[in-house]
Amino acid sequence: MTANDPHDCYRPELIVIPCGSRKLDHRAPAGDLYTGSYHRACRTTADALQPDRLLILSARHGLLDLDDVIDPYDTPHGTNNAITPQTLLAQATTRNILHLDPVIALGSAHHTSLVRTLWPYAHAPLTGTRGMGEQMARLAQLRKKYIPQHT
């Protein structure tokens, strides 16, 4: 799926968005904890696409529902305490969500590659962008396309 793909023919069963390094300084639901502009842009875009389910891929905790309450943390992807594909698989199996389709991964190439360890067929509308600026622009295009315009 790219910014120009027809989304009108299906509704995503699952969208997975990235966490973010900017967080509240206290324990909070995952849906409120991440405060950075990139995470918020991915979240707003996911909301516009109206998935049946929305999860956050946390670098430390793995797959989080928006109401999962967690403490702030400082764990970038690729470090010793970061989530592994094996742990993600165990989480997805426990949640019984491996069968979901279509799945959309909104996020960087690293985020998308982790999502695709579980859902190899996941759509990745930010693929081909060359950095955060282009990703933010693509997210804005997607939102504009799917948020009803008042005339």
Molecular structure report:
The chain is built from five helices and six strands; from the N terminus they run ββααβββαβαα. The protein has a four-stranded mixed β-sheet, with helices on both faces. The two termini are 28 Å apart. The longest helix is centred in the last third of the chain and has 15 residues, at 132-146. The chain has helices spanning 30-33, 37-49, 85-95, 109-118, 132-146; strands at 14-18, 28-29, 53-58, 62-65, 69-70, 103-105. The protein is 35% helix and 15% strand. The protein is globular and about 35 Å long. α2 packs parallel to α5. By secondary structure, it is an alpha/beta fold.
List its salient traits.
two-stranded antiparallel sheet; four-stranded mixed sheet; single chain
- Indicate the low-confidence ranges by residue numbers: none
Distance between the termini: 28 Å
Percent strand equals 5-15%
| Helix-residue proportion | 25-40%
Assign an overall shape. globular
Q: What's the SSE pattern? A: EEHHEEEHEHH
Briefly note the structural class of the backbone: alpha/beta
Instruction: State the total count of DSSP E strands.
Output: 6
Question: Treating each run of at least 4 consecutive H or I residues as one helix, how many helices?
Answer: 5
Mean pLDDT: 91
Strand order of the largest sheet: 4-3-1-6
The biggest beta sheet, please? 4 strands, mixed
Task: Calculate Rg over CA atoms.
Answer: 15 Å
